[in-house]
Write a structure and sequence with these properties.
This protein has 15 helices and 41 strands. It is 20% helix and 27% strand. By secondary structure, the protein is α+β, with helices and mostly antiparallel strands. The strands form nine sheets. Strands 18-7-6-5-4-23-22-19 form an eight-stranded parallel sheet. An eight-stranded antiparallel sheet has the order 27-28-29-32-33-41-37-38.
Length: 882
Amino acid sequence: MESTDRSSFAVSSLRTAALSLALAVPAFAASAAAPLVPDGWFLWPAVEPADGSALDTGALNATPAGAHGRVAVREGVFVDGQGERLRFWGANLCAAESFPSAEDAELIARRLAKGGVNIARLHHLDNTWSIGEGGTLWSADHKTRDTFDPDQLDRLHRLVATLARHGIYSNINLKVSKSLTPADGFADTIGQLPEFQKRVDIYQRRMVELQKDYARRLLTAKNPYTGLSLAEDPAVAVVEINNENSLLGYWTRDLGRGLDRFPEPFRGELVAQWNAWLARRYGDDEALRASWHEPPVGGAVSLVQPKASWRHKVQPGAAARLKPGRDATSFEVRVERTTGISHHVQASLHGLALEEGRVYTLEFEARADRERPLQVVVSIDGEARPGAEWRSFGLLETVTIGRAWAPVRVAFPAHSIAGDPASLAFNLAGAIGRVSVRGVRLVAGCEGSGLLAGQSPRAGTVPIPTSPSARQWADWIHFLADTERAFADEMRAYLRDELGVRAPMECSQIDYGGLVGLWREQAMEYADAHAYWQHPDFAAGLGWDPARWTIKNSPQVAELRDRAFAGFGTLAFVRVAGKPFSVSEYDHPAPSDYACEMYATLASFAARQDWDALYPFAVAEYGSRNPGNALRGFFDQVQHPAKWAFAPFATRVFRLGLVARASSQATLHLAAPVWTEQPHADLLWRKLLPPGRIHFLDQRLGVSDRPAPGAAQARLDVSGAVEPGAVALVAGSRGQVYLVAAPAAAAVVGPIGGTEIRAGALQVACAEFGRGFAAITAVALDDLELAQSRRVLITLGARGENLDMSWNAERTSVGAAWGSGPTIAERVPATIVLAGDMARSVYALAPDGTRARRVDVSRVAGGLRFAVSPGDATMHYEVVAE
């Protein structure tokens, strides 16, 4: 462990060297080392803004955090102790980043505060992959997960205190990534459970008690740097109980499936609770049998018609050949090259008609030239509904096949149909080789449903349904919902009543478990969700393999459509009416060519929707742990030039409300139970909103977690007229462009190369360059409108990368070839016109926000004009009154 003096010197030297390198860019570009920086790019290292510079947004933070009293919820928003509304712009500090040295804690707190961050989400504190490496609370001296390392707890406490001193609240995450083992007193089969024992930890009693014990240890220990426990500390803004988890399933739309595959004794514990629930619900076995009974199907006709034809779809990076069989019941595929991502080679049938809520059975035989995975999917027919967001219709299963012909039979309840046609797909890119399929049948109904002979809940002999009737499956979902609600209520009561936690809480993300999440979270003070644009896809069976992954690498702005608004629409549809809405994970992961779109669009969209907290994911290694100032992987905000450069704009827009909220509000009211009509909210929104464009930019959306008494169907309430606001989408000559035209903030985001466009006080003319995609923002740094402001920050960004980052031929992955720091940014060859009559000067800024040089300015009608010069080598310009 380095001494304080040595660490301080290392960080200071790093900042000085990086800044010197950046300021020497023009001379550097002409030197012998020029090939290091591609033409049209320049060095832009991540350094701390100078105090009071145009890039220093720290003045937004009241210090210390909590000085105005504890965070509370009032009239559906977060407020401080004086009743003033709080909007949070956050950062995720994960694992080792939550246990820094004193020097690094001070460094990251300053950096975040100057970037406009006022809350830090302390995530993966309980992970077990970094025990003994400084990245977790657990002690390396104990095999059990019940003892903290006192030095690690001290580091965490110091970080919380340091953040608070800089006006940054803490969001404490409880259960995230703890993995229990037989050493903790569990059966050896615990290793066969899902990662981090998700789903099981909601119903398994000892796991629940261990979560309470962990919370007690973490939240009640006195912080020596504040004299308060985390439960008492007003700088702790919120608490998250169990990250990304639902008994009904996570990362899936097909709720309730897969629990039958849990090993004993964990499956048996769930079965016992299932039987006890049934016994309470039904007076006797005959009542249960009558409820679950469905007439036998007998001679059902397959939806797979013999004359149908299989379609063949192969994504870049993969290669395969399809050989049709004698009819549509058979085919063969030879996968010659694969990315390892299953859906990158697909054989599919289209135009199938399914009925909502009906149970179907898929049957076939399959073999391969080696043991391998085979994924089967029934989903929306993308060919019949081009542009529609993909959604499962009830089946997304992976089976293992081998050399011998083997039968496969899967029953599933169809959901989310909403009148759309279905497709049946076999995803085959999990491995190279030959796969043969025959006897494909998809029929309504299933054999073996209902309460069978010898089964009784009072005897504990009713198994988890795998071949259910529709009513049987409805009971199963209801049981899981009740079990999950009981867990959430129990944990909340323990934290509130026994540990004295007063901060607002949420159990898990609101959309985990579909609309059941509304029921689970009903007693919580706020709602939270996560979303990613083009999260990396990893090769099947390899987990987070740093070399085997791909991204689609296309802009979200292009996918903001009339009735589907990409990740923004997904979030808007699950916002809970009457509660603060938090998005505690959001990112456009590196190395996307379009990451520059993220900050300006997220901040302005969330402002129009009147959300309450945003946390880009995440802060990667910093300070002494990243001496090269390199971009460290997919989720790195502070080191990413195309993201962090826009933090001064985004944090001001969102936290200060520079973009006004939409005046119209639409509220979705559900029947009871909330999940009965549809398992997910998006379909009900699209059903009840009028045909045509959904007003994502001009109407606040929210779903009520209080079901309408006696209502058999969902209904929509709308208040206020839909009126155009400061945010709009326009059709540019190169594609769709996202505009912000507020009095004190403006932005142009999209394919602007070779175009001219205006957003309020900001006018842009951009020459052709690179991929032609950029974001340009302007924000007043005082309380005035842009045209009258005496100090304006203008930011231009396109692509941001490490030096020597190496893409594959399809430009969908860099594998492990991330390159090295410092980072580089692509120049945007634009001419800027800023409205305003006063005399103003323009300065190109250095990476630390100091004024590097004065820029030539000309006067035009109603404003000033300047051009981006290659010699400026900057992402920022400061406009100041003379």
